[in-house]
Each structure stands twice: as structure tokens, then as C-alpha cells.
Design a protein that fits this description.
CATH superfamily of the largest domain: HupH hydrogenase expression protein, C-terminal domain
Number of domains: 2
Largest sheet: 10 strands, antiparallel
Helix content: 25-40%
Number of strands: 10
Oligomer: single chain
Shape: elongated
Structural class: alpha+beta
Low-confidence stretches: none
Length: 273
């Protein structure tokens, strides 16, 4: 029989011996963050801390019903009570940095919609879908947008067209509207990204949400314009978009989350008692 009727030897999956003697698999995604309550130990300042936690729980219920944000000044607490409150609230999966004066660090607690704000002269908890300062200051230019004055480099492809669409949509935005430009689906070059970065500038807010992978949201210097990037748990960029909206939905604490937070805080209070 002609050798050409047989498949070639020594090629294809399984044809080569494994030096380790076992199959090697690609690492699977891991590291998903989940809610886990923490019960502080009883001690001095406990009654003061529990009273504040009860007020925070009530504020979560009001916010879940569409009520206004509520703010609680932690600087008025005694040091022991302040430590107990911080221990009970913990650190959740969303962090924000708000540049400018004053620069503010914002950390979500393990209860979604309960935010801890720290800055020079600021030490407080705010309850609501998003802290009020974020909406007020997000697009204040940290690096100004220069639009079509950005230098046109060799290698540009769709950058100028994308810029024209973003500027137009930013100007015509209406409250509640959403327009998405998906860079993942659009042909573009590294030069396009450099061009857009220079043209659109940078706002005051950077947000990182850590869950099953990461989401990074950056406010740009044009009003209502956000860069939203999703990374998988292997830290590979899987979705890269511009959003023209009031605030990306990913950044907001949902109504259901605020309701759950109210219940879970009460559970922590009961466990301590």
C-alpha cells in the first residue's frame, strides 16, 4: 500500500510525549470577590457605633426607594467607635480617585451603595447610588480636551472619525440618554488611541471595580464622556468603549443592592448584640 494513504507520523495533538507525564491545561479564571460579613468584637464605643450603623441602614432603605443621598460625618465619633464602624463596613469592590481640590479617595464598603470618603478635612460615609461629588466634579479637566487641535500623526485610521462622533454626541446629549462607541469592534491603530487620548483630555475621576475581572472607568474632559474598559480575570482587555451618558451604569449601586445593604447591616447589628 502506498505510504501516501497513511497519515503522517509525528504530527498533531498527542503525537509528542509529555515530559511531565501529564496533561497541562491553561489556567482557568479565578478570584471572584463575593460578599462576606465581618462581625467586629464588642468593646468600648460599641453603642455609639451601632447607633450609626442603624442610621446607615435606614439611609440605604430610603436611597433604594429613590430618596436623596445621606451623609454621616465619622469625625464626630470617638476613636473606638470609629474603628468599629470601619471594621463593620469593610472594603468592597469599587474604588475611586477624584483629583482636584480637595483630592478625594472613595472606597465602597462591603455593602453596595455605602461609600467611605477620605480627604483633607473629610472623613465621612455617604449612602446612595454614587457620591454626589462624583457627579459634580467628574469631568472637571485634569488634562484639558483640545479636540481637533490634536496633532495628526502618521498611522491614523479611524481616530478623526471617532473623535467627530464623540464631540457631536457630547454636545447633543440629553439626560438619561446613552450612546456607545465600541472600540473593540472598530478597526483602529495605536496612533488612533494616542490621538484620541490627546484630543479628549482627562477628567477628575478614575474608578476601578473589581469583581470577576476588573472594570476601569475614566471620566474624560468632554461633558458626559466616559472611557469604560473591561478586563477578564487574566487581566486581558476584553471590551473597550466610549460611553456618552450621565454616568455608566457599571459605576452605580443598583436599587436591589441598596435594599440588600440595609438588610445586611441590620444582620450585622443583631449579630454583635
Amino acid at each position: 500500500m502506498s505510504p501516501f494513504t497513511f497519515p503522517p507520523a509525528g504530527f498533531g495533538p498527542g503525537s509528542q510525549p509529555d515530559p511531565e507525564g501529564e496533561l497541562q491545561y491553561m489556567p482557568m479564571p479565578s478570584g471572584m470577590r463575593t460578599y462576606s460579613p465581618h462581625i467586629p468584637e464588642a468593646g468600648e464605643g460599641m453603642a455609639e457605633a451601632l447607633a450609626l450603623l442603624a442610621e446607615i441602614s435606614a439611609a440605604c432603605t430610603i436611597a433604594a426607594q429613590g430618596g436623596p443621598n445621606a451623609s454621616f460625618d465619622l469625625a464626630t465619633l470617638s476613636p473606638p467607635a470609629r474603628r468599629i464602624v470601619a471594621d463593620a463596613l469593610g472594603s468592597g469592590e469599587v474604588s475611586m480617585k477624584l483629583r482636584g481640590l480637595p483630592a478625594v479617595l472613595i472606597q465602597e464598603s462591603v455593602f453596595a451603595g455605602v461609600w467611605m470618603l477620605a480627604a483633607s478635612g473629610i472623613d465621612r460615609v455617604e449612602v446612595g447610588p454614587i457620591p454626589a461629588q462624583v457627579l459634580a466634579r467628574a469631568h472637571m479637566p485634569y488634562r484639558p480636551a483640545i479636540g481637533t487641535l490634536a496633532a495628526r500623526r502618521n498611522g491614523l485610521a479611524n481616530g478623526p472619525s471617532i473623535l467627530a462622533e464623540l464631540i457631536d454626541r457630547s454636545r447633543r446629549h440629553r439626560p438619561g440618554a446613552l450612546h456607545v462607541v465600541n472600540l473593540t469592534l472598530l478597526p483602529h491603530t495605536p496612533e488612533d488611541l494616542d490621538y484620541l487620548a490627546e484630543a479628549l483630555g482627562e477628567g477628575a475621576l478614575t474608578l476601578l471595580s473589581r469583581g470577576y475581572g476588573n472594570c476601569r472607568i475614566t471620566a474624560l474632559a468632554l461633558p458626559h464622556l466616559w472611557r469604560v474598559q473591561f478586563f477578564n480575570s487574566m487581566d486581558t482587555l476584553i471590551l473597550d468603549t466610549f460611553e456618552i451618558t450621565d454616568l455608566p451604569e457599571t459605576a452605580l449601586a443598583a436599587t436591589e443592592d441598596l435594599s440588600d445593604g440595609a438588610t445586611r447591616i441590620l444582620d450585622v447589628i443583631e449579630a454583635i448584640r
